[in-house]
């Protein structure tokens, strides 16, 4: 029977003293010592993990004002991520290490948190919660952390280990991205990752670049992982313009269709940026209905409402590079030519939650999600008279 006053973890744990008896080290029988610091493990050693920090002067200084936290030989913590503050440790309870067992006291009163920046050099021991004992014991305190839960798309980017060398030590969602544009010096900028889509990443600028790339703090940009000749990786956002175009070049939609086909065959930075740039300058066909047919209100001056295309649980506004691409839509719906930027505006103003816009859904589809829509809006036109 587990006593009510404290919780004991029985996992064949051996406790021994290191460094002249000053730092407790937890070691599982038959396995290597599990003692490390943040500089060695990076965020993966603490994020969504239970850990024990031994009580020393620094830890006591950080948590000493909270009642009951300093009563043991250490503290039990759980790592979570705050998008504004970075990696944080939620202090769950005091930990006592005696002989061959570790005991964790009752949950501390109120919230006690520590920024990882304050304990980067401190040693900690990982506790494997295989049977969810700790998760159940401290479920009430852990439930508070649900407010910091990331979206599935953002969480997936945290599993991309190749980015780890480029991540900020404290705010690991922030990454160094090299901005490149003709006529300007290459500049390293801090970008907050938001999602990964088909080989590229979408993120927002943390602060204004020193040079004028046309993107500013809070703006969304697209970037890619690239590799130097020496094998080192870096992230690149290339804003260099391709060849200028005329409206006649874009009129039949064949350039856009060819660019999408090329991107689908080889998903890379240059091919994606070419598709986005061509969308930015193109006129497209959009299936719509007159308001009189729908008996609804809209802000559109033309008095029309775009048709909505559904795929699974996702909703899109469909648009087509030419009338030929519309297939059955050509006869089943009214169709209107309009600039792609107008379609993006319609998508942003839609009362129905949209995933984005889909180009040519019946042939070679290209999905322009709402975040990429913002990137397209910020692009400069390549069209000349």
What can you see in these coordinates?
- By secondary structure, this protein is of the alpha+beta class.
- The chain folds into three domains: 6-148, no CATH class; 161-238, no CATH class; 247-378, no CATH class.
- It is built from twelve helices and 22 strands.
- It has helices at 38-41, 57-63, 133-137, 139-143, 152-157, 247-250, 254-265, 269-281, 291-294, 329-332, 340-349, 370-378, and strands at residues 6-9, 13-18, 23-28, 36-37, 50-54, 74-82, 86-98, 101-105, 113-115, 123-127, 174-180, 187-197, 200-205, 220-227, 233-238, 283-290, 304-306, 309-311, 314-319, 334-339, 356-359, 366-369.
- Strands 1, 4, 5, 6, 7, 8, 9 and 10 form an eight-stranded antiparallel sheet that branches. Strands 11-12-13-14-15 form a five-stranded mixed β-barrel.
- Strand 12 and strand 13 form a beta hairpin.
- Helix 7 (254-265) runs antiparallel to helix 8 and helix 11 (340-349) packs across helix 12.
- The longest helix is centred in the last third of the chain and has 13 residues, at 269-281.
């Amino acid at each position: 029977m587990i006593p009510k006053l404290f919780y004991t973890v029985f996992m064949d744990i051996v406790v021994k003293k290191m460094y002249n008896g000053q730092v407790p080290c937890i070691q599982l029988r038959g396995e290597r010592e599990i003692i490390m610091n943040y500089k060695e493990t990076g965020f993966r050693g603490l994020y969504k993990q239970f850990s024990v920090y031994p009580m020393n002067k620094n830890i006591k200084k950080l948590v000493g004002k909270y009642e009951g936290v300093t009563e043991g030989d250490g503290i039990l913590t759980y790592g979570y991520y705050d998008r504004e503050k970075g990696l944080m440790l939620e202090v769950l309870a005091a930990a006592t290490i005696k002989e061959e067992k570790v005991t964790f006291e009752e949950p501390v009163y109120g919230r006690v948190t520590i920024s990882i920046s304050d304990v980067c050099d401190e040693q900690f021991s990982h506790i494997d919660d295989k049977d969810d004992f700790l998760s159940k014991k401290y479920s009430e305190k852990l439930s508070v952390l649900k407010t910091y839960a990331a979206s599935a798309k953002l969480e997936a980017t945290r599993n991309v280990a190749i980015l780890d060398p480029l991540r900020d030590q404290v705010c690991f969602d922030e990454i160094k991205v090299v901005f490149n544009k003709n006529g300007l010096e290459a500049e390293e900028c801090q970008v907050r990752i938001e999602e990964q889509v088909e080989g590229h990443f979408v993120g927002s600028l943390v602060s204004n670049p020193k040079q004028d790339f046309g993107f500013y703090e809070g703006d969304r940009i697209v970037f890619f992982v690239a590799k130097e000749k020496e094998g080192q990786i870096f992230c690149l956002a290339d804003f260099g313009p391709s060849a200028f175009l005329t409206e006649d070049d874009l009129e039949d939609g064949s350039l856009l269709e060819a660019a999408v086909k090329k991107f689908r065959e080889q998903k890379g930075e240059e091919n994606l940026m070419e598709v986005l740039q061509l969308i930015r300058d193109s006129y497209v066909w959009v299936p719509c209905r007159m308001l009189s047919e729908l008996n609804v209100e809209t802000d559109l001056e033309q008095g029309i409402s775009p048709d909505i295309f559904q795929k699974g649980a996702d909703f899109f506004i469909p648009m087509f590079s030419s009338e030929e691409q519309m297939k059955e839509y050509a006869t089943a719906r009214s169709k209107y030519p309009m600039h792609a930027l107008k379609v993006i505006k319609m998508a942003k103003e839609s009362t129905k939650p949209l995933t984005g816009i889909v180009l040519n859904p019946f042939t070679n589809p290209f999905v322009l999600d709402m975040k990429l829509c913002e990137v397209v809006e910020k692009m400069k036109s390549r069209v000349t008279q």
